[in-house]
Specification:
single chain, 244 residues, alpha/beta, six-stranded parallel β-sheet, 8 helices, 6 strands, 46% helix, globular, binds farnesyl diphosphate
Amino acid sequence: MKLPNHIAIILDGNGRWAKNKGMPRSYGHIIGCDNLEKMCNIICEIGVRYLTVYAFSTENWKRSKEEIKILMNLFRKYLKRCEKSVKKNQMRVKIIGDPERLEPDIQRSICKLEDMSKDYDKMFFRIALNYGGRDEILRAVTRLVKDARQGKLPQGKISEEMLDSYLDTPGIPDPDLLIRTSGEQRLSNFMLWQLAYTEFYFTDVPWPAFDKKELDKAIEQYNERDRRYGDVKEEKSKEGGACL
Ligand code: FPP
């Protein structure tokens, strides 16, 4: 069985899962948080090198004030308790997205976690917080244009590699497998640039109920796909030819 090198997950369905149990949405988020910790350990144990999860989008600010408050408090707690998994899994954690809209204490916790995990390299764990794919591309292009105007970039055409290096994921291989839980089959503005050749796996199982068995199913289905891009990419690096 071939393991994806990079798995990306859109964590969806906390609210519906809780509603089905006659519980408030916040309960779904709490269990969703616990499940992230559990699945992150499992994904590391099976040997996947890169994991990126979509936790809070630029659009999620439209949710009720009360729900945003609950989510931010959960992120606060999660960022602290993540320190344990960092050591256990020897994983480097980074937040992608624009941290500026997050409260100062959350920004400080992010810096602390990124700093304390910076020398680990068994797994690379990225959490998308206040993240939007279009916003990421806009932020990248703004910085690129600024550098170009200041003469910091080589003259000539802007290459994919150049733009890639201005995104929130420089040096990170693109996801091989994207999993979205809870039935929706769309990207919702997640990693628009990086998912160009990724295999998509959609499941009806909501995030709080997504377990090792469900992960195995996703990896099994990934193995049944014809991964042309991987081969083409290898050819490209050998021959320097075009990647179609
Ligand atoms: C999706 O469920 C979940 C979210 C948008 C909230 C963020 C995710 C978590 C709390 C999981 C843990 C993440 C971290 C980083 C601690 P939903 O509210 O969209 O559910 P619904 O679609 O059923 O309404």
